Amino acid sequence: MGCVTSTPKPYSADPTAALRSGLRYGLLGLLVLAVGGVIIASLAAGVAGLWGALIGAAVGGGFILCTMLVVLFTAKLPAVTAGAVLLGSWLLKMILAIVVLAVLDPLDFYNKQAMVIVIVLSLVIVLGAETYGVLQTKVPYVTPAERDEE
């Protein structure tokens, strides 16, 4: 009987590697959802379903992915500054989402059910994919101190 061995993934020295991995998985999850949502919504509601699915993927996926981008860009800032930028970006995203949905409400070129379903699915799928990407990345918790050569 043979011996089964596996080579563990190496640790990354980059402290933002987990965030970048999460962003990559989130984008992949959103792409898969957008394609699947467009196909299913188009079959169910025609061209209006296609537009509903595309808008839903853009609104829901964009909302979550923007958060990950802001966290990635502020990762090396002091905690108070990063928190303020993250809070400000969240407020800006909320205002933008409300404005987009208010502008779209009276229009009828898209299927509202398809849009809402894809928004909810994109929130769940993109968050899950980002979480998976972060958890799969090996990053050391501590950095060993360098010794002085005497």
The averaged pLDDT comes out at 86
**What is the string of SSEs from the N terminus onward?**
HHH
How is the main sheet built? none
Spans where pLDDT lies below 50 across 5 or more residues: none
Number of strands: 0
Shape: elongated
**CA-to-CA gap between the ends?**
51 Å
Radius of gyration from the alpha-carbon trace, in angstroms: 20 Å
Number of helices: 3
What structural category do the secondary elements indicate? mainly alpha
Strand content: under 5%
User: Portion of residues in helices?
Assistant: over 70%
Quick gist of this model?
The chain is built from three helices and no strands. It is mostly helical. α1 (about 15-75) crosses α2 (about 80-105).
Descriptors for this entry?
150 residues, mainly alpha, 3 helices, elongated
Task: Describe the protein.
The protein is mostly helical and 150 residues long. 72% of the residues lie in helices and 0% in strands. It contains three helices and no strands. The chain has helices at residues 17-73, 79-104, 112-136. Helix 1 (17-73) crosses helix 2 (79-104) and helix 1 crosses helix 3 (112-136). The protein starts with 16 loop residues before the first helix and ends in a 14-residue tail after the last helix. 27% of the residues are buried. The model has no long low-confidence stretch (mean pLDDT 86).
